[in-house]
Known about the structure:
The complex is a heterotrimer.
Chain A: H1 3-11, H2 14-54, H3 58-73, H4 76-89, H5 96-122, H6 125-133, H7 138-167, H8 172-175, H9 180-191, H10 195-222
Chain B: E1 26-35, E2 38-48, E3 53-57, H1 64-71, E4 79-84, E5 87-88, H2 96-101, E6 103-106, H3 118-128, H4 134-147, H5 163-175, E7 181-185, H6 193-208, E8 212-216, H7 220-226, E9 229-234, E10 237-242, H8 244-249, H9 254-265
Parallel strand pairs in B: 3-8, 3-9, 6-7, 7-8
Antiparallel strand pairs in B: 1-2, 1-4, 4-5, 9-10
Helix pairs in contact in B: 3-4, 3-5, 4-5, 5-6
Chain C: H1 2-8, H2 11-50, H3 55-70, H4 73-83, H5 93-119, H6 122-130, H7 135-150, H8 152-165, H9 177-188, H10 192-220
Magnesium ion is lined by residues 64-65, 186 of chain B.
Amino acid sequence: MTPLERFLDTFFNxxxxxxxxxxxxxxxxVTVELSVLxxxxxxxxxxxxxxxxxxxxxxxxxGIVIFADIFRALPPLVLILIVxxxxxxxxxxxxxxxxxxxxxxxxxxxxxxxxxxxGITSVAKGQWEAARSTGLGFTQALLWVVLPQAVRLAIPPLxxxxxxxxxxxxxxxxxxxxxxxxxxxxxxxxxxxxxxLMLAAVxxxxxxxxxxxxxxxxxxxxxWRKV
Amino acid sequence: MIDPRAARTADPTAPAAAPAAGRPALxxxxxxxxxGATTVLSGIDLAxxxxxxxxxxxxxGSGKSxxxxxxxxxxxxxxxxxxxxxxxxxxxxxNLNQIRQRIGMVFQAxxxxxxxxxxxxxxxxxxxxxxxxxxxxxxxxxxxxxQVGLAxxxxxxxxxxxxxxxxxxxxxxxLALEPEVMLFDEPTSALDPELVGDVLAVMxxxxxxxxxxxxxxxxxxxxxxxxxxxxxxxGGSIVEQGPPERIFGAPEHERTRAFLSRVTGx
Amino acid sequence: xxxxxxxxxxxxxxxxxxxxxxxxxWVTLLICLVVIPMGMxxxxxxxxASLSPRRxxxxxxxAFVDFFRAIPxxxxxxxxxxxxxxxxxxxxxxxxxxxxxxxxNSAYYGxxxxxxxxxVGTGQAEAARSTGLTAGQSLAHVVLPQAVRNVLPDLISNTVExxxxxxLASVVSLGEMLHQADLARSVTYNAxxxxxxxxxxxxxxxxxxxxxxxFERRMAT
Lengths: 227, 266, 221
Ligand SMILES: Nc1ncnc2c1ncn2[C@@H]1O[C@H](COP(=O)(O)OP(=O)(O)O)[C@@H](O)[C@H]1O
Ligand SMILES: [Mg+2]
């Protein structure tokens, strides 16, 4: 074999690709499903926490800050391993899918809370005052006047963070979630060929590239806000 | 048109025996306010009659904004009472959100909601506080925008309006709630000189429609034409008050004279 | 409750695992020492290239950056570690980690440096050049310091992410902290060693996370 042939045979072996493509496609659905669930619930939870923090109840805010700090400071894989291997011995049995979903949701919620809170605090005080002066209550002013502006500020960093965290669904491989990477590594060890890994990489790039491009566009669109 | 004097349904919290006529629209008594160690208001007494335009003058830092902001309790007074048509504004148990609808406020920085169109800026409180349907709220908002001459800008976002137009939308936002008193905190100070006139014209219209107005401003000419009474504040209290002719023509106090010569003569 | 304490906060097991975990900590720090400077250097080059006036340089670099922002770091790592040997390139876990992190970090640091460079007005470089500084000097002494200051919170934030990401090296059996802790976990059938590692991560990263929040608040007002 020439070096080129060897390279093609290793990474683009048609027979191997054809054989394992269905398995990897199954993995794609698992990854997509997890990603959608994590983004929806993570951002919702983070938004809720940021709103609760706006009421400035000392104890609640303190709890939220501690939560957000811990889940931003710890490596996701550490949290996943603690929960996945620790809970069964304590008598709680959760599937690897649920563990991965829960941990990544909490991590995204922690980041989303911080990003949205920064947005809420950066809305000018006059906005609150104008709203309150027309008789809107605190909650109404928050929901209808302040939060929409905070969300606008938060969209670019939130998009970046959501991409980074949904990409971490690949960590599920370590605890046996049948996602893209898991299917690919299994296929790779059965076939003794690196083509499934190449296919997995391509699948991830196809899946996430649109969102990366979107985030680039969002950033350039919102860039004027920085000056 | 929205008649600012439109009769309101009887307020259940108002003392029943009090006669409606002859009572001030807004009554401030013994108002005190400090921020930490700095005393900002040291005993303000002021009664604004219905349909009266009271013009408030005074050097920067004299407490004008704080007095205004105590009237709708954006600032919490330390002591004193404020009554709106006999209804207490201060004290515990006041339904603030209800009373604030009856007191319109216009800010120096406009404070329009940047994410909403002019129309939605006006309809927000109508819908969320008053509970009007969308159609009712929009009809009333269009009326208010017409009153300030901006019906054609209803669909614009604040960023697409000039400063003067933004301030007029802000006035419409307050007017649409049919307030009994309007507070203006330097409404034209942030405007380019050529845009001031439009805002003052709207305020003049409101005055002739019978609105009760408490106006903090530096527009002396407007005060001379439109004010019923001018108040000079300094160091957190009212130094002197009277009809504009007298305050501008023959001020009694040295501090008033010094201030006026600084702003007009200098 | 007791079961939980026994399973997650077993001090005896933690004490026994301590030497193993600390051994891993040194490896984690060593990885950081290698991959953070490499990533920053690569990122700076990527940023400069992606701002090049020449389209033939700019577009491929933007595509490179977006590609590595789209691919999960673990996928990249496994691809490098498990894929390249098939092509006859046998590499150690450490090299695999260094290569994968270099590609991933260059992309992320690159985006940050790019934003920083864009935030410095062109007048600054022009002023520097007008006093006779070379392009390189004007970049190093005038533009870059301002760029770095403008994006310092993002740089710190990304560096925290890189430190967290080093835990992925455990997947390719590099004996960093999480790997060592997980080793102790599998021997003791108890999660306490990983909780111990988590505690060490927190001790290192919590102050950084606090600092980032402080920065964000300051920018906001
Ligand atoms: N929220 C606040 N905290 C502390 N001091 C304040 C605050 N608001 C106003 N002040 C102070 O109160 C004084 C009066 O302010 P203000 O009522 O705004 O005056 P004016 O509107 O007449 O210029 C000033 O010395 C100002 O610094
Ligand atoms: Mg003022």
